[in-house]
């Protein structure tokens, strides 16, 4: 008893050191527990992947070849380490022949995919930017390459598509997410996703660039600009998003005026005016090679009289957003506009609610195609396409339903 009293007096006398020591012990214990749980998960996942690797394959067939497009600088240069630690062992144990191509610069993924040959699936190891570049390179080809599966290993800072296909989090939950993404590739579970085709409109001033393809969103305005600055406030840790709204909500450098016009056609379930269906490839795996004997495209005989009706809308807002959605089984582009004006308090409050997922941009119209023309295109104003920044210019956005095949979990509707 005397010893316990003595220890209590010591802790009371040195209470600052005691608190610091308790925090260090708690942090160390939580890290050890997390490491132990990750080891258990990886051991179980490796045993499951090895079952596929031990399975017999036909004598006339080589191991399945997949190409991994790895962005080594994604997520503050942690992507390569996480891929080699959690993903690569599972793919190799499953008997897949893995070719890893590391990107060297911005836009390099597009160039790699456009010229890629001799692979049976493409796996993107990175964030939204790497995935967007890969999809753009894939759809710029003219050899039916988009009919083959695309895998997503969510290793970047922003993983919008990866988080939809494989819900995850931090720590142990992040490792679970990567394991699920790898097992979807190994088990060959796939689903089709809609894609937005963004084409610059020829204004006669300069030669228009080639089209860009996006999967998640096109965003323009003050809220997007604020979130783009959040990494400057890294010192606030998980609260850096909130800090970004506090320190930027009054600045004129944000895009407070999003104004312009859009011409749009209504959503269509598919008719001979707007959709062309290409024949399915019956083989489970094949190579990316031009198919000169592809069958002719088939069109639906149904005619929708409203499909080609063009509507026009002028807008002025603090925010402009286009996202693909599926409503009642029909794919459509959802156009959202924020309020026309916010004061500082309203802007910060709304931004904080959005960080909590409690609010979103009000939807104005649904469309199949959109011609977007900003009222004033300034060189320093940018628009985000799948989190990648581009100069604001007149563009035409077309929804391409079920254009890219993704690996996904088998137990959810992804």
In short:
Keywords: ATP-binding, Kinase, Lipid metabolism, Membrane, Mitochondrion, Mitochondrion inner membrane, Nucleotide-binding, Transferase. One of its GO terms (cellular component) is mitochondrial inner membrane. The chain is of the alpha+beta class.
Explain this structure to me?
The protein is an alpha+beta fold and 414 residues long. Helix content is 34%, strand content 25%. It has eleven helices and 16 strands. The strands form three sheets. Strands 6-5-16-13-8-9 form a six-stranded antiparallel β-sheet. A six-stranded antiparallel β-sheet has the order 12-11-10-7-14-15. Strands 2-1-3-4 form a four-stranded parallel β-sheet, with helices on both faces. β3 (122-126), α6 and β4 (150-154) form a beta-alpha-beta unit. α2 (15-54) packs parallel to α4, α5 (108-114) packs parallel to α6 (128-139) and α10 packs antiparallel against α11.
Structural class per helix/strand content? alpha+beta
User: Which overall shape is indicated by the principal axes computed on the Cα atoms?
Assistant: globular
The overall pLDDT, averaged over residues, is 82
Low-pLDDT segments, ≥5 res: 277-300
What structural keywords apply?
six-stranded antiparallel β-sheet; 25% strand; 11 helices; 414 residues; 16 strands; alpha+beta; globular
């Amino acid at each position: 008893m005397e010893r316990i009293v003595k220890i209590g007096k010591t802790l009371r006398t040195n209470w600052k050191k005691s608190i610091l020591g308790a925090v260090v012990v708690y942090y160390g214990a939580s890290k050890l527990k997390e490491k132990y749980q990750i080891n258990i998960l990886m051991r179980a996942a490796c045993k499951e992947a090895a079952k596929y690797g031990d399975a017999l394959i036909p004598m006339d067939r080589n191991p399945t070849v997949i190409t991994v497009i790895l962005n080594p600088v994604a997520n503050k240069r942690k992507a390569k380490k996480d891929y080699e630690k959690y993903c690569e062992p599972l793919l190799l144990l499953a008997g897949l022949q893995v070719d890893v191509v590391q990107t060297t610069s911005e836009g390099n993924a597009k160039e790699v995919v456009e010229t890629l040959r001799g692979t049976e699936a493409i796996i993107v190891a990175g964030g939204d930017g790497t995935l967007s570049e890969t999809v753009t390179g894939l759809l710029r080809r003219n050899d039916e390459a988009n009919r083959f599966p695309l895998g997503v290993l969510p290793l970047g800072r922003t993983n919008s598509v990866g988080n939809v296909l494989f819900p995850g989090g931090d720590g142990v939950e992040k490792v679970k997410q990567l394991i699920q993404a790898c097992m979807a590739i190994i088990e060959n579970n796939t689903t089709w996703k809609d894609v937005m085709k963004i084409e610059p409109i020829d204004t006669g001033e300069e030669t228009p660039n080639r089209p860009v393809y996006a999967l998640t969103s096109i965003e323009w305005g003050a809220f997007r600009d604020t979130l783009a600055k959040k990494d400057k406030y890294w010192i606030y840790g998980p609260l850096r998003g909130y800090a970004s709204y506090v320190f930027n909500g009054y600045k004129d450098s944000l895009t407070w005026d999003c104004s312009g016009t859009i011409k749009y056609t209504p959503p269509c379930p598919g008719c001979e005016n707007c959709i062309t269906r290409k024949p399915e490839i019956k083989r489970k795996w094949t190579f990316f090679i031009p198919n000169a004997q592809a069958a002719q495209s088939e069109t639906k005989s149904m005619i929708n009289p409203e499909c080609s009706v063009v509507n026009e809308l002028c807008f002025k807002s603090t925010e402009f957003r286009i996202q693909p959605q599926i409503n009642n089984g029909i794919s459509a582009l959802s156009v959202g506009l924020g309020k026309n004006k916010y004061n500082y308090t309203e802007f910060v409050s709304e931004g904080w609610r959005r960080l909590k997922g409690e609010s979103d941009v009000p939807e104005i119209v649904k469309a199949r195609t959109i011609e977007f023309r900003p009222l004033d295109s300034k060189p320093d104003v940018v628009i985000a396409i799948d989190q990648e920044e581009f100069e604001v210019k007149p563009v035409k956005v077309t929804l391409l339903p079920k254009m890219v095949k993704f690996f996904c979990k088998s137990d959810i509707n992804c």
